[in-house]
Amino acid sequence: MNNRFFIPFLLAGFLLLNCLGCGSSSRKDKDTDGKKSNGSETSIRAEGSDTMVNLAQAWAETYHGKRADVNIQVLGGGSGVGIASLINGTCDMANASRKMKDKELQSAVKKSGVEPVEHIVGYDALAVYVHKDNPIDSISIEELAEIYGDGGKITDWSQIEGGKKLEITRVSRQNNSGTYAYFREAVLGKNRDYKLGSIDQSGSKDVVALVSKTPGAIGYSGMGYATPEVKMLKISKKKGEPGTAPTMENAIKGAYPITRPLHIYTLGEPEGVVAEYLEWINSEEGQAVVSELGYVPAAKK
Asked: Strand 41-48 and strand 35-38: pairing?
């Protein structure tokens, strides 16, 4: 080929290849601070608490509407599952409706060399649900302990003031659930375990659904899962005292006795898109989502 034709041809080819390279160099396909990037989208994996799964999904959808380049993948499975995933490095954020245990904190440091950081992102009034036709409107912590606790003597609704003769069906959560752990600590105390024979459900929504179909059932779940087919009982600390309803106002005032913080755990202080996402969750806009779903914003507690 004549040099006066070959040189321009070679130069054009070089410029074309260089432009193609420019199109993909603005966001590399790599792991950056635990967030997988594919093309122009960055992914955050949030896993854990079933109580928080609806809230986490609402956050994810709202944030993606603002930041189309950030995709948040939300999975449930229970607080224990999310914490285990964080320890193993397979998620960026662990949603938990309980605090991490000492052995979990130690395991995280041993595996990653980094200490988990707790972020309180809201509060939940843990409601006690019964069938909508149950005449009981209020129950005490003492009575709940006698229904759910090992060695408890209450097995029929007629043993509760205002109740009718009907066997109690105990609906509980599986033991990997933060709700299960919190209810045991708040109601049964640290030295008492659950009574055997309950019907254990894997999710908060499942608890409420079963109670709605079972006239003698009682179950516990986040107040955000209420439906017209169930009734949330008022709770008192002691038998004979007036009960307090599980409302946002009562939770904020500290009047409702079964109120717990909702946590997100990260390995070390979050960075990059995870830090930006957590900052948004705690912003006025992110906390508005907490209120909309029936939980208590962190700033109001």
From this structure: antiparallel
Q: Cα(7)–Cα(56) distance, rounded to whole angstroms?
A: 58
Q: How many whole angstroms separate alpha carbon 166 and alpha carbon 157?
A: 5
Secondary structure letter of residue 167 according to DSSP: B
| Residue ranges of the chain assigned to CATH 3.40.190.10 | 41-122+262-300, 124-259
Question: Is residue 36 packed enough to be buried (19+ CB in 10 Å), middle (13-18) or exposed (0-12)?
Answer: middle
Write out pLDDT tens, residues 243-285.
999 988 898 888 999 998 999 999 999 999 999 999 999 999 9
Residue 24 has a CB neighbour count (10 Å cut-off) of: 11
Residues recorded for the chain: 301
Domain 41-122+262-300 grouped into CATH 3.90.1170.20: no
**Under DSSP, is residue 172 helix (H, G, I), strand (E, B) or coil?**
strand
Q: pLDDT: is 203 or 35 the higher one?
A: 203
Q: Contact, 44 vs 143, CB < 8 A?
A: no
Cα–Cα distance between 70 and 278 in angstroms, integer?
13
> CATH: 3.40.50.1240, 3.40.190.10, 2.30.40.10, 3.40.640.10. Which one for 124-259?
3.40.190.10
